[in-house]
Design a protein that fits this description.
By secondary structure, the protein is an alpha+beta fold. It folds into six domains: 100 residues, SEA domain (Alpha-Beta Plaits); 94 residues, Immunoglobulins (Immunoglobulin-like); 138 residues, Sandwich (Immunoglobulin-like), CATH 2.60.40.10; 97 residues; 150 residues, Chondroitinase Ac, Chain A, domain 3, CATH 2.60.220.50; 261 residues, Up-down Bundle (Rhopdopsin 7-helix transmembrane proteins), CATH 1.20.1070.10. The protein contains 24 helices and 51 strands. The protein has an eight-stranded mixed sheet with strand order 9-10-8-11-19-18-14-15.
C-alpha cells in the first residue's frame, strides 16, 4: 500500500488541522481509484456540527445580513481494507477568517477496515471525486448535527471526499466615536501616512482587547480620524447585539485608552437597523403611521426618541404625534400632503447606544387624493321630457362613474386638459308629487371612499332667479356649484326675492396652496428658504386661479405672515416673497380683494401690509429688488437722505438722531391700490375716498424728527381734499384703517401732493369728492384737554384734602355733616391715588398703531400692579359717590329716622372700600391665570378683547351713576311736593338753593358726567361727546374742590374766620339768597297752580336728628 503522506499496515487514525488566513490557500491532493457513493447533508447555522461542532465567525457590512463565505476545503482519504465494507465518520470544526478561502486536502490511506477521524478549520468542503454531494441550508437559529456515512464494496477503497457548504449567519455593526485629548495633524487624514498607521495600530489593539469579551465578537477596528482634538470613528462587529454588554464595554473604554491618550467625554455609540415600517399607499388628507424599533433586539429601557424629516427635527404636536412605548416609537402624520414625501429617520436612545432606523417615503406611498368636482345642488322647474345634464370631473389619472341606487348610469366621457369628465343626461318623466329631490352619486373607480353627490330639486313654482352660473331657483333656494379646474371646494348662493343669486360661502382654493398652508404649520427657520421658493413656484404657476379665488389669496397672505414672524430674511427669501406678493396684488385680483374687504371679520389686506413691514425689519444685507408691482431698497445713508422711488414718490429726511450712518428700507407698492380698503379711522366702511398714490413703506433704524413725502397722483381728475395718511393697524379691533395722526398735508401743486409726517410706517394719500368726515386736530384737542385737565385735577385734590383737614373740627359737629365730609375726603383721596396710578401705567405703555413691527408688549408684573390699583381706586371713587348719594337720600327722604355716627361710618367704609376690593380681587383671580387681566401690548389697563375684564369697572360705575340719577330725581320730587307752611318767601329761597345745589354739585360730584362714556361707546365718531367726556372727567378733582368744599358756606366761614354759631342761622342765610332777583320755586309752583306749600324747615325741626343742618351742610 502506497500512501501519499505515510504508510501503515494497520488501522490508521489521522487527525489534521488546518488554519486558513486571509487570501491564503492550502492544498494537499491525493489521487485514488475507487467507486464511492457518498451522501453528505450539512445544515449551516450560527453553530453547525457534522458529528461535531462547526463555529463560523466573519465580519460583514454595516447592516444585518445573511452571507455565504466562499471558503473551500477538499479532503481526500485513501483506505486499504480487507473487509467488504468500510465506514468512515468525520468530525469537522471550522472557523473561517474574513474574506478568505481555505482549501485543505487531507489524505489518508487505510489497508484494512478502520475509522478515520479528521479535524480541520474550514467553512466549506468541496468534493472532487466520484462522490455525489447533496447540500441543504437552513435558517441560522438551531444547532444541527449531521452524520456522513460512506460505504465501499471492495477490498481496497480509495475515496476523494469534497464537501461544499454555504454558511449563513447574522451580523451587527455598532458605530462608535470617541475623542482623544491629542492635537490633530493633517497626516491623520491620509490612511497611508505613518502617523495614521501607528495610531490605528495602537487603537486597534486596545479596541480588540476591550470588546473581545462581548458575545459573538468578530472584530473592532478604526474607520477614520476627524478633527476636533482627534475624533476616532470605529466599528465593533458581532454576531449578537447585546446592548448591556456594549454599554459596559464603553463605560470601561476611558480606562483602557489611557495607554494611548485621555478620552474627552463619553463614547458615542449607534446601531443602524433595517428600514422603518411604512404603509403601502396613503392618499393625501388621510393619516400615515411610521413605526420604529425591533421586536427581535432587546434594546432595554428607551430613555428618549427623536424623529427627523429630511434632516429637520420633527416636533411633537400640530400635524405630528410621536408616541414611544417600550422599545417601539411611532410617528403619526395627520392630514398627509405631498410635501410629506421624503426621508424619515428615527433614533431611539437606549443604555448609551442609539438605535437608528430610516425610511424613504416616496411618491409610490403618498398619492394625491382624487378631487371630485360637480354641482352638488341643482334646482330645476319641472317640464315633462326636460333633459338635465349632470357633469362630474376628477383629475387624471383617476376616473369616475355616475351611480344611482347602486346602478352605474350611462355617461359620455369628455376629457379636459387636466381632468377626466363624464356627462349623464337625466330626463324628467313626470311632474306629479312635486317638489321632489333626486340624488346622484359620482364615484371614483376602485376608490369607493371618494365620492360626491348631486341633489336635483324638481319644483313646479315659478322661477325667481335665473342665470348661467347658478341656474334657476325659487326664493330661498340654494345652488351649489363647482369651482374652476385646478381648485377644490364649492360656491353656494341663495336666491333672493329680488331675482338675484347672492353669493354666500366660497370655499374654492388651489389645492397646492392648501397643502402649503398645512405644511407651514411645521415651518422652521431652517426650512424658510426652500419653503419660500416652493410658495413662489406654486403661485407663479397658478396665477389666474389664485387671482379669482379670494380664499386662496387670504391663505397666501396667511403663509407670508408666517414667514415674516421667523428670524432674519436674506435677499433670496425676500425676492421669492415679493414675487409672490406681486402676483396677488395685481389688477386681476381686484374683485377678490373687494370681496375680502367687505368681510368685516377679515383683515387680509392689513395683515399683508403688516407682514411686509415685519419682513422689512428683518432684512439682512443691503440690496434692491424690483418686481412688477413692488420696488424694495435697503441702503445706508448719512444726513440728509433724499430718494426718488420710481419717479412717483420722493422721500426727504433732513436729520436723524444718530451720529453714525443709518440704514433705511423703502418699499414702493403700486399694486396696493387694488388691495387696501378706503375706510378711515372714523368710519368702518368704504367711503367716497380713494387711494390716489402708490403706498410707500419707510423704515429706519434710528429716530427722526420728521419726513417729507411727495406723491404723484394716479388720477389727476381728483382735486378735492387730499389727505396724508398712514395705515393704522389697530383701528376697528385690528381690522385697520387709514389715519392722519402725525401726518400733515402741506401742498397740492401740479398734481404733486406734499406731506409732512413725524413718524415712519406705510403712507399714501386719500382723495375725496366731498369734505372729510373727521375734522383735523381733534386728537390734539383731546390730548390737550386730558393732560391739562389731569394736572389741574391732581392739584385740586391736594388742595381739597388740605382744606378739609384745616376745617375738619369746625364743620363736623353733627353726624350728617361728619359723614358728608368723610365722603368728600375719601372721594378726593381715591381719585388722587387713581390718577397717580394712571400716570404710572401710562409710562409703561406705547402706541402700537403706527409701527406694528416693533415690540410694544408692556411688562406684565408692573403693569398688572398699576392696573389693579387703578381699578380699585376708580371703583372706590364711584362707591364713595354712592355713599354721598345715599346720605343725601337718607337725610332728605327719611327725615324721622335716626342712625348713629359709628353705624353710618361703618356702612360708608364697607361700601367705599370693601365692595371695590372684592370686585378688584375677583377680577384678578378670574382673568389673570389665562393671561386676560391686562391688555398686554396697547396699554396698562383692563383687558377687553380676550376676557372682557373691563366690564368689572364699567358695570359697577354705570350702575352707581344710574342710582345717583334716581336719587337726584327722588330728592327734587320730594322737595317740590312738600307743603312748607306759612312763610312762602323763605321757603322759595330755600327750595331754590336746594335745587341749584343738587344740580350743580351732585352732577360732577357723583360722576354723572361718566354717563357720557356711554355716548362714546354708542357713537364713537361723535367728536362732541368725546370732547365733553374728556373735559368733565379730567377735571373731576377740580369739581370736587369747588363744589364739594369751596361752595360750602361753613367751610368758607371757617376760612374767613366768620363762621356762624348755629346751623339754623346758616340755613336762614342760605334761604334768603336769590338768583337774579327771581324766585325759582315761586315760578315752578305757579306753573303747578299751587298757592300754599309745606315749610321744609318746620318739618325738619320735628325730627330729633336736626335735618335742617343737613340741608345746609349738603
Amino acid at each position: 500500500t502506497t500512501l501519499t503522506t505515510e504508510t501503515t499496515k494497520s488501522t490508521t487514525i489521522a487527525t489534521t488541522t488546518a488554519e486558513a488566513t486571509t487570501a491564503a490557500t492550502t492544498t494537499t491532493t491525493s489521487t485514488t481509484n475507487a467507486t464511492t457513493a457518498a451522501t453528505t447533508t450539512i445544515t449551516p447555522t450560527t453553530k453547525t456540527t457534522t458529528n461535531a461542532t462547526i463555529t463560523t465567525e466573519a465580519p460583514t457590512a454595516a447592516t444585518t445580513k445573511t452571507m455565504a463565505t466562499p471558503t473551500t476545503e477538499t479532503t481526500t482519504r485513501t483506505t486499504n481494507a480487507t473487509t467488504a465494507e468500510a465506514t468512515s465518520t468525520g468530525t469537522i470544526t471550522s472557523v473561517p477568517p474574513s474574506a478568505a478561502t481555505a482549501i485543505t486536502t487531507l489524505t489518508a490511506n487505510a489497508t484494512k477496515a478502520g475509522t478515520t477521524t479528521m479535524t480541520a478549520e474550514a467553512s466549506t468542503a468541496a468534493t472532487n471525486a466520484t462522490t455525489a454531494a447533496t447540500i441543504t441550508t437552513a435558517t441560522p437559529t438551531t444547532k444541527t448535527t449531521t452524520n456522513a456515512t460512506m460505504t465501499a464494496e471492495a477490498s481496497t477503497i480509495t475515496e476523494n471526499v469534497s464537501v461544499t457548504s454555504s454558511t449563513v449567519f447574522t451580523e451587527f455593526t455598532v458605530a462608535i466615536s470617541i475623542t482623544l485629548d491629542k492635537e490633530f495633524t493633517p497626516d491623520l487624514n491620509n490612511q497611508a501616512s505613518l502617523a495614521y498607521k501607528e495610531l490605528e495600530l495602537k487603537l486597534n489593539l486596545v479596541l480588540k482587547d476591550q470588546y473581545r469579551q462581548i458575545t459573538g465578537f468578530i472584530r473592532a477596528f478604526v474607520k477614520a480620524f476627524r478633527q476636533g482634538s482627534i475624533i476616532v470613528d470605529f466599528e465593533v462587529q458581532t454576531t449578537q447585539l447585546n446592548y448591556s454588554e456594549i454599554a459596559a464595554a464603553n463605560s470601561q473604554l476611558p480606562t483602557a485608552m489611557k495607554s494611548v491618550a485621555t478620552l474627552l467625554g463619553d463614547p458615542v455609540a449607534s446601531y443602524q437597523s433595517k428600514s422603518l415600517q411604512m404603509p403601502a399607499i396613503i392618499y393625501t388628507g388621510k393619516n400615515m403611521t411610521l413605526t420604529c424599533g425591533s421586536s427581535k433586539i432587546d434594546l432595554g429601557e428607551i430613555s428618549a426618541s427623536e424623529w427627523t424629516f429630511n434632516g429637520q427635527k420633527i416636533e411633537n404636536g400640530k400635524r405630528f404625534e410621536i408616541i414611544t412605548s417600550g422599545a417601539i416609537s411611532t410617528l403619526a402624520v395627520n392630514n398627509v400632503i405631498l410635501a410629506d414625501i421624503g426621508l424619515y429617520k428615527c433614533t431611539l436612545k437606549a443604555q448609551g447606544i442609539d438605535f437608528i432606523q430610516e425610511g424613504n417615503v416616496t411618491g409610490d406611498i403618498i398619492k394625491e387624493a382624487p378631487v371630485v368636482r360637480l354641482h352638488s345642488q341643482i334646482n330645476v322647474k319641472c317640464r315633462e321630457g326636460l333633459i338635465q345634464e349632470l357633469d362630474c370631473c376628477v383629475q387624471f389619472p383617476y376616473k369616475v362613474n355616475w351611480v344611482q341606487d347602486k346602478t352605474i348610469l350611462p355617461s359620455n366621457v369628455s376629457n379636459h386638459q387636466k381632468s377626466y369628465c363624464i356627462k349623464h343626461t337625466y330626463q324628467l318623466k313626470s311632474c306629479s308629487a312635486l317638489p321632489q329631490t333626486k340624488n346622484f352619486t359620482c364615484v371614483v373607480d376602485e376608490l369607493a371612499d371618494y365620492e360626491s353627490t348631486t341633489s336635483l330639486t324638481i319644483f313646479s313654482e315659478d322661477i325667481i332667479c335665473k342665470d348661467d352660473r347658478f341656474g334657476t331657483g325659487r326664493t330661498g333656494d340654494q345652488s351649489t356649484i363647482w369651482c374652476d379646474e385646478g381648485l377644490e371646494g364649492s360656491i353656494t348662493a341663495v336666491c333672493e326675492g329680488s331675482g338675484n343669486w347672492k353669493t354666500g360661502e366660497d370655499t374654492c382654493i388651489v389645492t397646492a396652496i392648501k397643502e402649503l398652508l398645512i405644511f407651514s404649520e411645521q415651518l422652521t427657520e431652517v426650512g424658510v428658504p426652500e419653503f419660500a421658493g416652493a410658495l413662489n413656484a406654486v403661485v407663479q404657476s397658478n396665477k389666474s386661479e389664485i387671482s379669482n379665488s379670494s380664499l386662496t389669496i387670504s391663505v397666501v397672505v396667511n403663509i407670508v405672515n408666517k414667514i415674516s414672524v421667523l428670524s432674519a430674511v436674506n435677499q433670496a427669501v425676500m425676492k421669492d416673497v415679493l414675487e409672490t406678493v406681486d402676483a396677488i396684488i395685481s389688477e386681476d385680483s381686484r374683485d377678490s380683494w373687494i370681496a375680502l374687504n367687505l368681510n368685516k371679520t377679515d383683515n387680509s389686506s392689513s395683515e399683508l401690509l403688516g407682514s411686509l413691514e415685519g419682513l422689512s425689519d428683518k432684512l439682512v444685507g443691503e440690496f434692491e429688488i424690483e418686481t412688477g408691482q413692488v420696488i424694495l431698497n435697503k441702503t445706508s445713508f448719512s444726513d440728509p437722505f433724499v430718494a426718488n422711488v420710481n419717479s412717483s414718490v420722493t422721500i426727504n429726511i433732513s436729520n436723524t438722531s444718530s451720529e453714525n450712518a443709518s440704514v433705511i428700507t423703502t418699499m414702493l407698492l403700486t399694486g396696493l391700490i387694488n388691495v387696501m380698503p378706503t375706510r378711515n379711522q372714523s368710519i368702518n366702511n368704504e367711503t367716497d375716498n380713494t387711494i390716489n398714490a402708490a403706498v410707500v413703506l419707510v423704515k429706519i433704524d434710528t429716530k427722526i424728527g420728521n419726513v417729507i413725502l411727495t406723491f404723484n397722483k394716479l388720477n389727476n381728475t381728483l382735486k378735492l381734499n387730499p389727505q396724508c395718511v398712514f395705515w393704522n393697524f389697530t383701528a376697528f379691533n385690528n381690522l385697520g384703517a387709514w389715519d392722519d395722526f402725525g401726518c400733515t398735508f402741506v401742498s397740492d401743486i401740479n398734481d404733486i401732493v406734499t406731506c409732512n409726517c413725524t413718524h415712519l410706517t406705510s403712507f399714501s394719500i386719500l382723495m375725496s369728492t366731498r369734505l372729510p368726515v373727521v375734522r383735523p386736530g381733534v386728537k390734539v384737542a383731546l390730548d390737550l384737554i386730558t393732560y391739562v385737565g389731569v394736572g389741574i385735577s391732581l392739584a385740586s385734590l391736594v388742595i381739597c384734602l388740605i382744606l378739609e383737614g384745616y376745617v375738619w373740627k369746625a364743620v363736623t359737629r353733627n353726624s350728617t355733616a361728619f359723614m358728608r365730609h368723610v365722603s368728600i375726603v375719601n372721594t378726593a383721596l381715591s381719585l388722587l391715588i387713581a390718577d397717580i396710578c394712571f400716570i404710572i401705567a401710562a409710562s409703561f405703555a406705547k402706541n402700537p398703531g403706527e409701527n406694528p413691527g416693533e415690540d410694544y408688549n408692556v411688562p406684565v408684573g408692573p403693569c398688572s400692579a398699576a392696573t389693579f390699583f387703578m381699578h380699585l381706586f376708580y371703583l372706590a371713587l364711584f362707591f364713595w359717590m354712592l355713599v354721598s348719594g345715599l346720605l343725601l337720600f337718607y337725610r332728605t327722604v327719611m327725615i324721622f329716622s335716626h342712625m348713629s355716627k359709628s353705624a353710618m361710618l361703618a356702612i360708608g367704609f364697607c361700601l367705599g372700600y370693601g365692595c371695590p376690593l372684592v370686585i378688584a380681587v375677583v377680577t384678578v383671580a378670574v382673568t389673570a391665570p389665562s393671561g386676560g387681566y391686562v391688555q398686554g401690548n396697547e396699554a396698562c389697563w383692563l383687558n377687553w378683547t380676550k376676557s372682557k375684564a373691563l366690564l368689572a369697572l364699567v358695570i359697577p360705575a354705570l350702575t352707581i351713576v344710574l342710582v345717583n340719577i334716581l336719587i337726584l330725581i327722588v330728592i327734587i320730587t320730594k322737595i317740590l311736593s312738600r307743603d312748607v307752611g306759612e312763610s312762602v318767601q323763605t321757603d322759595e329761597k330755600h327750595a331754590l338753593v336746594v335745587i341749584a345745589r343738587c344740580v350743580i354739585i351732585l352732577t360732577p360730584l357723583f360722576g354723572l358726567t361718566w354717563s357720557l362714556g356711554v355716548g362714546t361707546m354708542v357713537s364713537s365718531t361723535n367728536e362732541g361727546i368725546h370732547i365733553a367726556f374728556a373735559f368733565f372727567n379730567s377735571l373731576q378733582g377740580f369739581f370736587i374742590l369747588v363744589f364739594g368744599t369751596l361752595l360750602d358756606s361753613k367751610v368758607r366761614s371757617v376760612l374767613s374766620k366768620k363762621a356762624t354759631t348755629s346751623t339754623s342761622s346758616s340755613l336762614t342765610k342760605v334761604s334768603q339768597s336769590k338768583i337774579g332777583g327771581v324766585s325759582v320755586l315761586d315760578w315752578i309752583n305757579r306753573l303747578r297752580g299751587r298757592r300754599y306749600i309745606y315749610h321744609v324747615s318746620q318739618a325738619a325741626n320735628s325730627s330729633g336728628s336736626d335735618p335742617s343742618a343737613s340741608y345746609s351742610s349738603i
